[in-house]
Specification:
Order of helices and strands: HHH
Mean pLDDT: 79
Largest sheet: none
Structural class: mainly alpha
Number of helices: 3
Radius of gyration: 16 Å
Strand content: under 5%
Low-confidence stretches: none
Helix content: over 70%
Number of strands: 0
Length: 87
């Protein structure tokens, strides 16, 4: 029961932060396991890096679609370069 209560509190806080941010006229960034649905089936390391990149693109452009696509593309490229450097 306590665990369900904690999840509900966490969800409520996350939504409150999002509402306050949107009320100020900002664009809602992704954070703490909250990521675009198109990242759902990506490996965790790519998903985390893509989310980080997408948040930065979102800050500069304000275009959510562009941020999602760029984040995923750049994250894949980052880890591909990393793998090639190990060889």
């Amino acid at each position: 029961m306590l665990q369900i209560w904690r999840l509900n509190i966490r969800f409520a806080i996350k939504n409150l932060i999002g509402l306050l941010y949107l009320k100020k006229g900002g664009i809602m960034p992704w954070y703490n396991g909250d990521y675009p649905p198109s990242y759902k089936n990506q490996p965790k390391k790519i998903r985390d890096k893509a989310t980080e990149i997408a948040n930065e693109v979102l800050k500069t452009t304000g275009n959510e679609g562009e941020a999602i696509a760029t984040g995923l593309k750049q994250a894949r490229a980052h880890f591909k370069k990393e793998e090639e450097a190990k060889k």
